[in-house]
Amino acid sequence: MRLLLILLFTIFNSLKVSAQTNYWIFFKNSTPVQSVNPSYLKKIASKNVKVIGTSKWFNAAYVSVNDSKHLKKIEKLSFVKNIEQSRKYKVQKLDIQLFDSLKYGQANVQLNMLGLQNYHRKGYTGKGVKIGLFDGGFYNVNSIIAFDSLRKRKGILATRDFYDNNSNVYDDNEHGMYVLSLISGYVKDSMFGSAPDANFVLARTEFVATEKHIEEFNWVRALEWADSIGVDIIHSSLGYSKFDTLEGNYTYKDMDGQSTIITRAAEMAFSRGIFITNSAGNEGQNSWHFITAPCDGKNVLCVGAVDSFRHHAKFSSYGPSSDGRVKPDVMAMGKNVTIIGTNNIMRRGSGTSFSGPIMAGFVACLKQAFPNVSNSILLDAIRKSGHLYKTPNDSMGFGIPNINRADSLVRVKLSTTSISKQKFKAFPNPCHSVLYFEKTISLNNIEMTDILGKTYFPVLNNNSIDMTGFKPGIYFLKLENFEVERVMKI
């Protein structure tokens, strides 16, 4: 058994500090901003705190403080909304077992369980879909043979190490490499990922060897970075719950979909058009027992683990959320699954860290099939495709989904609305100047909203609009009876 990364957060405590501690300082204008007001940062820095960085989504600063009395002065500043304490983490044993190389075809079990092989034969392999992976490192992905096809087609669009502040994510922990292999690994006649033609942005947000406060902030930074690239899906095989006794813990009550910073960030990402998948955690046999954040999010697809016989894997975390919602959402094979080892040999591993990415690939294939359908419709269809949808429970949620059934459910949904007969796609995307539209009916006025919520009504000219005068960034295009289209201006 090897030690792999799973990071947990502790509860937001009262503002008590015994040593250097990190905090989030939220400013009163809660609307997302392009950048945090520099005068705010200058003023709080003058109160004997160190500003580590900022989040434009939360309109907040992440700071380090030696003495909590300095925070009392900051709380009184007119532009400060509230202050929340950050968390500390530690490396925990993950229920991962690596064995010798497998017999031919064993990777088929984890895909066939979800109906993915038949879906791949229809041509839906995640092509054109962008997936962001957040992890502790992607060791040797730049050289391992199983990623040759991914590298040759330039399927890795961007990399970023948010711990060391550079672009090299290939020299650290191997956990992210295992995760990526389940989605995009390929060995002829032996290994096939769940979405082998998807594209990726890879972010190292965690540091395995020591306890740090900064990983939570890194996750938020990575989220904003991935959004700026235009990712469609974000997956992390990470969980946040219980940690060092001196740091304080989350409680099960905090798994309510709105208390933890990471869950709030995941929900914000979903509202911006990013589908979020996350592993449920390996707490099933531990004292914590339950799912961990951000899996408690209302719009986060929380993925538990089953074995090859479709039975709940004992290590997989249980639901429900503390406010009574069904969790985990769905299950995928997470015990003795086929992964790629660091020595280029296929191996087996166990953990919800592995069931989660298989489902992320499942979502990518579905998004390829329905590029213009909202994430809300896809999420609902995936849940309803579970074999226990009518009788969900705390160990299996809605059960094991089937992608062919989910496909049918989406089509049924579309058949009841006018959207099924309409196409609304903008190209090129990303766009530098003129943005064109594909259509089957005449387009009328288009409403365009930026990430700050500001609305524009650009003039249509022969089914195109001139984007030259707009600032670079993400825009959401809305048209009556059509789904929202997400466009990046460069």
What would you note in describing this structure?
The chain is α/β, with parallel strands linked by helices. It folds into 3 domains: 21-85, Alpha-Beta Plaits, CATH 3.30.70; 107-415, Peptidase S8/S53 domain (Rossmann fold, 3-Layer(aba) Sandwich), CATH 3.40.50.200; 421-489, Immunoglobulin-like (Sandwich), CATH 2.60.40. The chain contains 11 helices and 22 strands. It has a 7-stranded parallel sheet with strand order 6-9-5-10-11-12-13, sandwiched between helices. It has a 4-stranded antiparallel sheet with strand order 2-3-1-4, sandwiched between helices. A hairpin with a 4-residue loop joins strand 2 and strand 3 (60-65). Helix 10 (375-384) crosses helix 11 (403-415). The N and C termini lie far apart (46 Å). Mean pLDDT is 85; it is low at 1-18 and 89-104.
Question: How is this fold's topology laid out?
Answer:
Layout: E1 21-27, H1 38-45, E2 49-55, E3 60-65, H2 69-75, E4 80-85, H3 107-112, H4 116-121, E5 130-135, H5 148-152, E6 156-161, H6 175-184, E7 186-187, E8 191-192, E9 199-204, H7 214-229, E10 233-236, H8 261-271, E11 275-279, E12 300-306, E13 330-333, E14 337-340, E15 346-349, H9 352-369, H10 375-384, H11 403-415, E16 425-427, E17 434-438, E18 447-450, E19 455-456, E20 464-466, E21 473-478, E22 485-489
Parallel strand pairs: 5-9, 5-10, 6-9, 10-11, 11-12, 12-13
Antiparallel strand pairs: 1-3, 1-4, 2-3, 7-8, 14-15, 16-17, 17-20, 18-19, 18-21, 21-22
Helix pairs in contact: 6-9, 7-8, 10-11
